[in-house]
Automatic annotation (TrEMBL):
<feature type="domain" description="ABC3 transporter permease C-terminal">
    <location>
        <begin position="284"/>
        <end position="392"/>
    </location>
</feature>
<protein>
    <submittedName>
        <fullName>Uncharacterized protein</fullName>
    </submittedName>
</protein>
<feature type="transmembrane region" description="Helical">
    <location>
        <begin position="323"/>
        <end position="346"/>
    </location>
</feature>
<keyword id="KW-0812">Transmembrane</keyword>
<feature type="transmembrane region" description="Helical">
    <location>
        <begin position="366"/>
        <end position="385"/>
    </location>
</feature>
<keyword id="KW-1003">Cell membrane</keyword>
<dbReference type="GO" id="GO:0005886">
    <property type="term" value="C:plasma membrane"/>
</dbReference>
<dbReference type="InterPro" id="IPR025857">
    <property type="entry name" value="MacB_PCD"/>
</dbReference>
<dbReference type="Pfam" id="PF12704">
    <property type="entry name" value="MacB_PCD"/>
</dbReference>
<dbReference type="Pfam" id="PF02687">
    <property type="entry name" value="FtsX"/>
</dbReference>
<keyword id="KW-0813">Transport</keyword>
<keyword id="KW-1133">Transmembrane helix</keyword>
<dbReference type="InterPro" id="IPR051125">
    <property type="entry name" value="ABC-4/HrtB_transporter"/>
</dbReference>
<feature type="domain" description="MacB-like periplasmic core">
    <location>
        <begin position="16"/>
        <end position="253"/>
    </location>
</feature>
<feature type="transmembrane region" description="Helical">
    <location>
        <begin position="282"/>
        <end position="303"/>
    </location>
</feature>
<feature type="transmembrane region" description="Helical">
    <location>
        <begin position="12"/>
        <end position="36"/>
    </location>
</feature>
<dbReference type="InterPro" id="IPR003838">
    <property type="entry name" value="ABC3_permease_C"/>
</dbReference>
Amino acid sequence: MDLAIRDIRQHLGRFLATVVGIGLLFAIVLSMNGIYRGFVFEGLALINSTNPDLWVVERYRGGPINEQSILPEFFHYSVAAMPGVEKASPFIVYPVERRIAGKSRRFTIVGYDVFTGLGGPKKLLAGRPITQAHYEAVAHQKLGLRLNENFRLGLHTYTVVGLTKEGTSPDGEPLLYLSLPDAQEVIWLPDNEEVRNQRLRIYQSLVHPGLFTVQEAEKYLSRYSIEMHRINAVLVRLMPGAQAREVAQSIRDYLYLSVFTTPEQIEIMSQGRLNRPRMQLFLFRTLLLIVCVVIIAMVIFTLTMEKIRSIAVMKLIGAPNRVIIRLIMEQSILLTSCSYLIGWVIIHNTYHVWPRLVLLTPLDDLVTFGLALIGGIIASLLGIWKALKTPPALALGEQ
């Protein structure tokens, strides 16, 4: 080790510049690990945090999060009447972009039955769950709302009664929990101008020649109302001892709906909406690691070639091959370890300022370091091979 350190001291500036450069590359590799893990975590966070025994959705649909599913709200009464079902709760999840506190923000509204609790936030940072049927909200801390803050959404003003950091939408957007009727109004209630235009279109259709008189059309038009009692899914909690597979099959057979357990929802999401982006991130992450190892190999080889005459001198004075091998191998390990350490320090002190979740895990850090170290050792073999082939006569100026 003394020989390697002595050589590094003689070229300290170049070694430090190389270490910083490769360290930045390692920071990108580690950040890609975190981006990949964060993408998968956020993609499944809402399913994992909701976690009912069964998800009941529109027939032939993959679920309320993987794809859109629309059901009449009253269906949850039919589901609740099925054998083995303890609770059945309507559930809405819908991404929106609205103005809150004077700023346009993108977030996902989650509407649930606040009295059964299914679908609501389970862990709160501050405050309490929603206990009233209207005008209360639990906000994700990423929305920037404070406890007891009032904000305008749609036609009404809501009060933040709780804060959470549990779960995000699959796009990484924060969640805003509302009671079911509040969420239905915010999501489904159209603009007043749209209501007037729709009523006018219906009226003109009714008074078409040969259909209804003006009096009859106005009579039927008065019955027109906006349908807001729609939901995306019914969340089910089973009775103790009930078999999820049997209850799910009963709901499919008698109510003609699709039913999934939470693990099945995770599988559908992983193999559907998340599949291609996840594979692309994984491929990019692998390529980055390969590029990093190749650059280390090139640096080690270049450093070896720069001191090839010094190696020839060592061989001329009788230094054994193991000393030369040790010199190159130790420098390779030092370069890889120091570079990785710099990259690790950079990303672990900056990951929290990234716009989306960067989830760093000790296992990923360890595996990346192990692969980089193995790659560095293998890369140093090229330099060792070149050094061992160097004739001692090169020290005397012969080629």
